[in-house]
Structures are given as structure tokens and as C-alpha cells.
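Let's practice the habit of predicting before peeking. Look at the sequence and jot down your guess about where helices and strands might fall. Then scroll down.
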Amino acid sequence: MMMSRCCSILFVVAYVLSGDLLAFDLGALKQSIVKAGQQLKAGEISDCITNIQEASDALPGLVMQATPKELTELKGLHAKLQKAHELLAIEGAELDDLPSWDELIKIKKSGGTVPNKKPAGSMEEKKKASESKGVSFTRDLAPWLVSQCGRCHVNESRGRFSMATFEALMKGTRDGVVLFPGDPVGSRFVEVIETGDMPRGGGKVSPENLAKLKQWVTEGAKFDGPAASAPLPSLVTEKAPDAAAPMKSEPAVVAMATGKETVSFSQDIAPILIANCNGCHYNGTRNSGGLRFDDFAGLLKGGTSGVAIEAGKPEESLLIRKLRGTSGARMPLGRAPLEDDKIKLVATWISEGATFDGYSQDGKLDQVVGKAWASKAGHEELMAKRMDRAREKWKIVSPKSEPSEASDQQFHVIGDIGEENAKLLLSQANNALKQVKKMFKITGNDPILKGGITIFALKQRYDYSEFGTMAEGGRSIPSEWSSHWRKETLDTYIAIIFDKTESKINESSLVQQIASLWVGSMDGVPKWFADGAGRNALANLVGQNDARVQAWVKRVPESMKQLEDMKRLMNGNMNDEDAATIGFGVIRWMYDSKMKSQYETILRTLASGSNFEQATTKAIGPIEIFLKNLLGKTK
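Done guessing? Here is the structure:
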């Protein structure tokens, strides 16, 4: 079983704080580090954070007093503590900055002293001083309890548990009390938060807030509000200037761009996020702090520290505070700070309303950026970019082989089929294009798609399957397929198994995929409809006796059974083959019935620039109602 990234991080930090460090004899510093390692292994993360901070506070003073031999050991210890800071910060901890090693040595050589940001005295005295202040329920706990647990347990009583008031919180559930003053270990309320089981709708509770909760329970779970029966939200006091911002469970509402903005998200902001947040918040296996920048919708949603963007309020936006380092660890973590002019650009975008000017809030940021660039690029420029992209993909699919290529203004063939065969396939693609243009009444000599179409040519089924695995993120291509298409800004291509002896099969398959690509390139067209249009085009070309057409016709009734409700098809949650077969069945029925003119109206309306909803509504009415009636579905 693979270890989760969170567990992996804990393992790394545990390693950092154990092993050879345990033999490092520096009194209180050693004790703090040993304790941190033990607490980490026991899953006591908040206590571990406390001891890491204590060790970090003690280390500068030791450096000032160290001998040359001790400095060597302290330098290694500093590096490991710095790594622990970084890893814990990824999990949401906001530790005080640890001075760099170069800064410490510079101060030591100059005979100066390290600025003391903490109360004077030993680490134990500092801890006692901190603990003597106590944790305030209204100041330290109520804000995040309301924001992270409010929807389920303040506004409602999910699981028969209410936190509408402090009184209700201490009463617990029908099954019993969940908070025992003085006993955080035995308190079920603490347990479900520490294990991550709760809250389920408001993001993970930060280590700092969990530590405060446990300390508050240890101190007797005292109430410092005006009345225990008062509504919990009324206890949330005005935030102090240095207080952590309360979590917000709802994302900011962001408008579409008006065209009056001076900063563009797709052209200015998205490239900054991609370049500087990659690996942690973008294209990461686990999104640090629960914050995902893979698409615009994720950016709006925010993470465990709250909503990242306050539209119109850059100074209040967590994103800006993190970039400037004014709210916990500076981001991007472990990298050079973002240049002031770029931070200013992000702040200006937020002040102008944090508007979105891309094609889809759910589209990956690289596609948003690519589409913005492509909208201004010419055909040749975009085709050159797609050709470079195709070569990069081929290196992933077959890193040891040099591909054969052949190109013209419409197509770029690339594959492992040899130069002569690449030229042959290019010719077959142009023959197929003529058929598609004739079928769909496409006039003019302009390229059928701006930027052209890449054709990945594979010489056997194994290579074709590997293409799906290596180039399409582990995709399992249906065993019935010998070709398919994909339409994204820089990835507009057909992948096909090439057989030199089967020119008619090659050309008809290319007719199918070119037709699907052309229809699928229009505004809002769902993949099932584009696939159906391509299969119908092939059927019109080769006739009913073709083995591929017969297989599709035979499968239609079985695919219909997979359509448990209409949403599976409409939301794209059906497997590729069944969705394509249903698309073929729908369009074939329209084409062979009295509705051929309506199908052609849909295509004409799409080609004129209307979106799919507008085109289908004009020709046949709302598409979902049409499909329900056609397929005999009522759900």
C-alpha cells in the first residue's frame, strides 16, 4: 500500500529529527529535538511544532557561543531544522522564521547578537510564560469553530451534535459528552479533529488551532464569553491586528472579465501561478494546505487556511499576504521570493475584481494560458507550437526512437512507421479531409482547424495502447478502438494504428476522427456528440456492411442499458465506448429519419459561431429533453 503524501512528510520530518541528531548533546536543545521526534512518531503534531519552535529559538544563541568544531555540527542541525520548517509549513504550520546560516555566521563574526523576538529566559520559562496566558475560547477557538464547523453543527445539528451555543457544545450528543475539561486525550471532540475525520466540509483544522484546542481543554475548557447560552457566532470578536484570519467556508464570488481590466488572468496571472506554484499547488500529487491551483475554480475555493482571494481587496487576500510573507511562511516555499512587480500585478488583478477571462473555470491553467496565446497566434505559429508539443509527447512515448515526420498546411504526421509511410499517411489524411469537407459542406481552402492536426502513427496495437498509458496520463484505450482524437489548445491530434496494406481502412478511420475533431472543436460540443458525428460520417462512407459499423449498431442497445440516468451522459461520467456508441445511435437515428435536416441545422448553427446549447435548442429544443424522449428515459 502506498503511503499518503501527508504520511510521507511526517516520515521525512521524523527522520530529520531522529537518528544522528539524537546523539547531539546540547542540553535543552537536544531534549527539545528528541521530544519533537517522539511526538511526531506518536502523531502529536501540534506538540511537535511547539518543540521545533523551541529548538529554532535556542539554536542562534548556541551558534554565537560555539567553537569551530561545534559550528560544523550546528550547521547540519540548522539545515535539518530548516527542512522541518518547510515541511511543517506545507501542512499549515506558521512557525517564526529561522535565520539563515549565513546570517548567523555574519552576526557571530561581527560580534553582534541575534535579535531576541521571544521573552527572555530559558525555553522552559518561555513555555510557562506562554501557557500562563491561557487560551481564550472566544478569541482563539470560536472564530474557526464557526467558520469550519458552522454549516453542519452551528446552523444545523448534523450527527445529532449541535454547537449553536457553548452550552450545547459542552452538552455533547445524545450518546454523551464529547469534551472533558482537563482531558484532551479522552475528549471525542478533540479526537475527531486530530484524526482529520472532522470537519468534513470546512477543510482541515490547522496545527496551530488544534494545539490551542488541546491546550484549552487541558486548562479546564473555561468559558470567557458573556453567556454560555449566547449564539456561538455572536461570540466571535473583532479580529486583532496580529490574529490569524478566520476560515471562510464559501469561496469568493468572481465575475467574468469586462474587457476594461488592465491585468488579464489568462495572460498575466495564470503564467505566474504555473511557474511559481508548480509541484505544491499546481500539478501536485497532493495539494499543499488543501489549496489547488490546477484550475481557476480551485483557486477560488481556497484551502485549509481559508479563501485565497478577496475580490477587490488585495491587502485582505491570503494569496497576497502569503506572497509577501506577512501571514506565516512566505510563498512560494523553498524558492526565491516572487518579484515585487509580479506581486503588484497579482494585487492589481485582485483590486480590479479578480475577474476571469479564460474559456472555462474548470480548465487546467496551462490550457487557459495556451488558449489565450492561441487566440492571438496565426495558423503557422500555432502549428509550429503543436509540432513541438507532438515531438515532446513522442519522447515520452518512445524515448529511444527518432520519429518519422511528414507535414503540410493541414497535418503533421509523426510516428514510428518510417519516412515513406509517414508521407503515405499524410496523403491518406488529405484524401480523408476531402471526404469530410464534402460530407459536411465545408467550403474554402483554409485549414479545417487553425494550427492544423497532428497525427500520431503507431505501427502496432501494443504501441497504440502504450500511447494512452504514457501520453494521456495512464489512460486505458478501449480494446475496440484503432484510432481516436483529442482536442485541446496545443494537443489537437489523432492517434491511429497504421497498416500500410489497408489504405481504405486508414482513410475511413481518418474520416471518422477528422469529422469528430471538427465538430468537437466548436463551442460547447460534448464529446459524445462529436464522437457520434464522426462514427456517422464513417458509416456514410463505408456502408452498413463494414465490420466497425455493424459492431456499433449491435452495441447500441447494450450501451443504452448503461445509461442509468441522463446525468451520466450529460456530465461525461460514462465510459468512452458506451458514450460514443450512444452518440452514434442518436445521430444515426436523426440522419436516417425525418430529422436529418434538424441534424444539419445543428451543424450549420455551430459552424456560424453559436454554442451547442443554442444550436440544439434552435433545431430540436433542449437537448436533455430531446434525449430523454428519444431514449425512453424519465430520470
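How did you do? Residues 1-24, 118-132, 237-249 have pLDDT under 50 and may be disordered.
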